[in-house]
Amino acid sequence: MRTTFHHPHGYHAARSEQDVEARLAAVLDRFQDAITSVHVTMEDLNGQKGGVDKSCKLELHGSFETVVVTATHEHILGAVDAAVAQFGRVKLTGWIAW
Fold it and tell me: Rounded distance, CA 51 to CA 31, Å?
């Protein structure tokens, strides 16, 4: 499974990339043969204003229809955790031929 990252507006959190990859591996390991790539977009939606403005969008590609989930949180890793948790709840088993 290949993971790519996109950081609009210069927002970059290298440590977050490692955390995202570890979290994705833990949740999606059982689907590794069917998943070809995951595209991750992390951004701060309103700059220095603060609040619930960190966004994480995950796009899962493979031998099934593309799945996209987005989550926001006060902290980027909170947004990552929420998006990864959504992936964990997606019913991929209907789309993947075993």
Answer: 35
Q: Can you give the pTM of this predicted structure?
A: 0.77
The per-residue b/e assignment along 21-51, b for 16 or more CB within 10 angstroms, e otherwise, is eebbeebbeebeebbeebbbbbbbeeeeeee
Q: Which of 23, 42, 34 is nearest to 1 (CA)?
A: 34
Cα radius of gyration rounded to whole Å, the chain: 13
For β-strands 2-6 and 35-44, DSSP reports them as parallel
User: What pLDDT, in 10s, does the model give residues 48-89?
Assistant: 776 778 898 999 898 888 889 999 998 888 888 898 888 777
